[in-house]
Design a protein that fits this description.
Layout lengths: L19 E5 L5 E5 L8 E5 L2 E3 L1 H7 L7 E3 L5 E3 L11 E2 L5 E6 L2 E6 L10 E2 L3 E2 L19 E2 L2
Parallel strand pairs: 7-10, 11-12
Antiparallel strand pairs: 1-2, 3-9, 4-6, 5-6, 8-9
Bound molecules: S-adenosylmethionine and zinc ion.
Zinc ion binds next to loops.
Protein backbone atom coordinates (compact mmCIF):
# COMPACT_ATOMS: atom_id res chain seq x y z
CA UNK A 1 0.00 0.00 0.00
CA UNK A 2 1.45 3.40 -0.89
CA UNK A 3 2.78 5.19 2.17
CA UNK A 4 2.22 2.06 4.27
CA UNK A 5 4.11 1.57 7.53
CA UNK A 6 6.83 -0.49 5.82
CA UNK A 7 7.45 1.94 2.95
CA UNK A 8 11.02 3.21 2.77
CA UNK A 9 11.61 6.82 1.65
CA UNK A 10 12.87 7.12 -1.91
CA UNK A 11 14.45 10.42 -2.91
CA UNK A 12 13.84 11.24 -6.57
CA UNK A 13 16.92 13.17 -7.67
CA UNK A 14 15.29 15.01 -10.56
CA UNK A 15 13.11 16.86 -8.03
CA UNK A 16 16.08 17.88 -5.84
CA UNK A 17 18.49 20.77 -6.32
CA UNK A 18 20.91 19.49 -3.66
CA UNK A 19 22.21 16.11 -2.50
CA UNK A 20 19.81 14.65 0.08
CA UNK A 21 19.49 11.32 1.84
CA UNK A 22 17.01 9.52 4.04
CA UNK A 23 17.93 8.68 7.63
CA UNK A 24 16.66 7.87 11.10
CA UNK A 25 15.14 10.96 12.68
CA UNK A 26 15.29 11.83 16.38
CA UNK A 27 11.87 13.41 15.90
CA UNK A 28 9.90 10.61 14.22
CA UNK A 29 10.81 7.48 12.23
CA UNK A 30 12.34 8.49 8.90
CA UNK A 31 13.56 11.96 8.03
CA UNK A 32 15.35 13.63 5.10
CA UNK A 33 18.88 14.94 5.67
CA UNK A 34 21.29 17.09 3.68
CA UNK A 35 24.38 15.45 2.18
CA UNK A 36 25.90 18.87 1.42
CA UNK A 37 25.51 22.41 2.80
CA UNK A 38 22.64 24.47 1.34
CA UNK A 39 22.78 28.28 1.19
CA UNK A 40 19.80 30.39 2.37
CA UNK A 41 16.82 31.10 0.08
CA UNK A 42 17.42 28.20 -2.34
CA UNK A 43 14.93 25.72 -3.74
CA UNK A 44 15.82 22.41 -2.12
CA UNK A 45 13.21 19.84 -3.17
CA UNK A 46 9.89 19.91 -4.98
CA UNK A 47 6.91 18.31 -3.25
CA UNK A 48 5.31 16.04 -5.84
CA UNK A 49 2.47 13.55 -5.76
CA UNK A 50 -1.05 12.81 -6.90
CA UNK A 51 -3.49 15.72 -6.95
CA UNK A 52 -6.72 14.85 -5.15
CA UNK A 53 -9.85 16.77 -4.15
CA UNK A 54 -11.17 17.19 -0.61
CA UNK A 55 -13.62 14.28 -0.95
CA UNK A 56 -10.79 11.90 -1.91
CA UNK A 57 -8.63 13.40 0.87
CA UNK A 58 -11.42 12.58 3.35
CA UNK A 59 -11.58 9.02 2.01
CA UNK A 60 -7.80 8.54 2.44
CA UNK A 61 -7.63 9.99 5.96
CA UNK A 62 -7.99 6.48 7.46
CA UNK A 63 -4.54 5.47 6.17
CA UNK A 64 -1.99 4.83 8.87
CA UNK A 65 0.55 7.23 7.42
CA UNK A 66 -0.72 10.30 5.61
CA UNK A 67 1.63 12.16 3.29
CA UNK A 68 -0.51 14.99 2.03
CA UNK A 69 0.20 18.64 1.35
CA UNK A 70 -2.97 20.73 1.58
CA UNK A 71 -3.45 23.44 -1.03
CA UNK A 72 -5.57 26.52 -0.32
CA UNK A 73 -8.09 25.76 -3.09
CA UNK A 74 -9.42 22.61 -1.38
CA UNK A 75 -7.15 20.28 -3.31
CA UNK A 76 -4.28 18.31 -1.83
CA UNK A 77 -1.16 16.58 -3.13
CA UNK A 78 -0.76 13.01 -1.90
CA UNK A 79 2.99 12.35 -1.76
CA UNK A 80 2.39 8.65 -1.08
CA UNK A 81 1.82 8.31 -4.86
CA UNK A 82 4.57 9.77 -7.05
CA UNK A 83 6.26 11.53 -4.13
CA UNK A 84 9.77 13.02 -4.47
CA UNK A 85 10.81 12.10 -0.92
CA UNK A 86 9.77 15.54 0.38
CA UNK A 87 6.73 13.84 1.94
CA UNK A 88 9.12 12.36 4.54
CA UNK A 89 10.29 15.75 5.82
CA UNK A 90 9.36 16.07 9.49
CA UNK A 91 7.80 19.02 11.27
CA UNK A 92 9.64 21.48 13.48
CA UNK A 93 8.37 24.62 15.22
CA UNK A 94 11.82 26.04 14.37
CA UNK A 95 12.05 24.96 10.72
CA UNK A 96 14.86 25.39 8.18
CA UNK A 97 12.50 25.23 5.17
CA UNK A 98 9.28 26.90 4.07
CA UNK A 99 6.86 25.88 1.34
CA UNK A 100 6.46 28.16 -1.69
CA UNK A 101 3.48 27.35 -3.90
CA UNK A 102 3.67 28.94 -7.35
CA UNK A 103 2.83 28.04 -10.92
CA UNK A 104 1.38 24.66 -9.98
CA UNK A 105 4.55 23.60 -8.16
CA UNK A 106 5.33 23.28 -4.45
CA UNK A 107 8.94 24.01 -3.62
CA UNK A 108 10.52 23.63 -0.18
CA UNK A 109 12.94 26.56 0.08
CA UNK A 110 15.77 27.04 2.63
CA UNK A 111 15.04 29.72 5.25
CA UNK A 112 18.75 29.98 6.18
CA UNK A 113 22.01 28.17 5.50
CA UNK A 114 21.61 24.48 6.30
CA UNK A 115 24.76 22.55 7.18
CA UNK A 116 25.61 19.13 5.69
CA UNK A 117 24.08 16.31 7.71
CA UNK A 118 21.23 18.41 9.13
CA UNK A 119 17.65 17.17 9.07
CA UNK A 120 15.35 19.12 6.74
CA UNK A 121 12.42 20.51 8.72
CA UNK A 122 9.19 22.26 7.81
CA UNK A 123 6.57 23.93 9.99
CA UNK A 124 3.47 21.93 8.94
CA UNK A 125 1.05 24.49 10.44
CA UNK A 126 -1.72 21.89 10.50
CA UNK A 127 -5.02 23.71 10.91
CA UNK A 128 -6.46 24.00 14.41
CA UNK A 129 -9.62 22.39 12.94
CA UNK A 130 -7.78 19.05 12.88
CA UNK A 131 -7.19 16.94 16.03
CA UNK A 132 -4.07 18.13 17.88
CA UNK A 133 -0.85 16.19 17.19
CA UNK A 134 1.79 16.44 19.94
CA UNK A 135 5.11 17.81 18.72
CA UNK A 136 8.47 16.20 19.49
CA UNK A 137 10.64 18.66 17.54
CA UNK A 138 12.61 19.49 20.71
CA UNK A 139 13.28 23.11 19.70
CA UNK A 140 13.28 25.91 22.28
CA UNK A 141 10.38 27.49 20.36
CA UNK A 142 8.27 24.31 20.35
CA UNK A 143 4.54 25.14 20.42
CA UNK A 144 3.71 21.68 21.79
CA UNK A 145 1.58 20.70 18.77
CA UNK A 146 2.01 20.36 15.00
CA UNK A 147 -1.18 22.42 14.70
CA UNK A 148 -1.12 26.15 14.11
CA UNK A 149 -3.52 27.99 16.38
CA UNK A 150 -2.22 31.53 15.83
C1 LIG B 1 4.65 13.18 6.47
S1 LIG B 1 5.11 12.16 7.80
C2 LIG B 1 6.83 12.54 8.03
C3 LIG B 1 7.70 11.33 7.85
C4 LIG B 1 7.67 10.37 9.01
N1 LIG B 1 8.77 10.67 9.94
C5 LIG B 1 7.75 8.93 8.54
O1 LIG B 1 8.81 8.28 8.73
O2 LIG B 1 6.78 8.45 7.96
C6 LIG B 1 4.25 13.06 9.01
C7 LIG B 1 4.09 12.32 10.33
O3 LIG B 1 5.35 12.27 11.00
C8 LIG B 1 5.17 12.49 12.39
N2 LIG B 1 5.88 13.72 12.76
C9 LIG B 1 6.51 14.59 11.93
N3 LIG B 1 7.06 15.61 12.61
C10 LIG B 1 6.78 15.39 13.92
C11 LIG B 1 7.04 16.09 15.13
N4 LIG B 1 7.73 17.25 15.15
N5 LIG B 1 6.58 15.57 16.30
C12 LIG B 1 5.89 14.41 16.31
N6 LIG B 1 5.60 13.68 15.21
C13 LIG B 1 6.03 14.17 14.02
C14 LIG B 1 3.69 12.63 12.64
O4 LIG B 1 3.19 11.35 12.96
C15 LIG B 1 3.18 13.08 11.29
O5 LIG B 1 1.83 12.71 11.10
ZN1 LIG C 1 7.63 21.61 18.09
Amino acid sequence: MPGGPDAVPQIVKKHCRFALERGDSKIHRWGIFTAEAIPARRRVIEYTGQKIDSREMFRRRVRQNLYVFLLKNGFAIDGAIGGSGAEYINHSCSPNLYARVAGGHIWFVSLRRIEAGAELLLDYRISGDYPPVECRCGSAECRGYLNWLG
